[in-house]
Write a structure and sequence with these properties.
single chain; mainly alpha; two-stranded antiparallel sheet
Length: about 100
């Protein structure tokens, strides 16, 4: 199984959870997710390149797409994207709804 295929399965599940949050009208604040994405993807690029460059992690060239950011395969970024979407969506789905104004009194 290639890393791309593994990522597609994993990201498919993430997309279903995010869709559930959107349909339940409990979607995360996507602007905040976008801001976090910029920071997290930059950090992923830096640290993945360091980890791969030092030899702590290696990838089988026949299992990656060949698209690289530095020396890190693009597939490595799927985990960061998944976390950026999945965690806020689950948080919103598990959060208790605020009481309605007429029930608060």
């Amino acid at each position: 199984m290639t890393y791309t295929l593994l990522n597609l399965v994993f990201l498919g599940v993430v997309a279903l959870v995010a869709l559930a949050a959107v349909l339940a009208r409990r979607a995360p604040h996507w602007k905040a997710v976008g801001l976090a994405a910029v920071l997290m993807l930059a950090l992923t690029a830096i640290f993945d390149n360091v980890i791969i460059g030092t030899g702590l992690v290696a990838y089988d060239d026949s299992l990656i797409s060949g698209v690289l950011i530095g020396i890190a395969p693009i597939e490595d970024f799927a985990y960061t994207v998944a976390a950026l979407v999945l965690l806020p969506a689950v948080w919103e789905l598990l959060r208790r709804p605020a009481p309605r104004q007429d029930e608060a009194s």
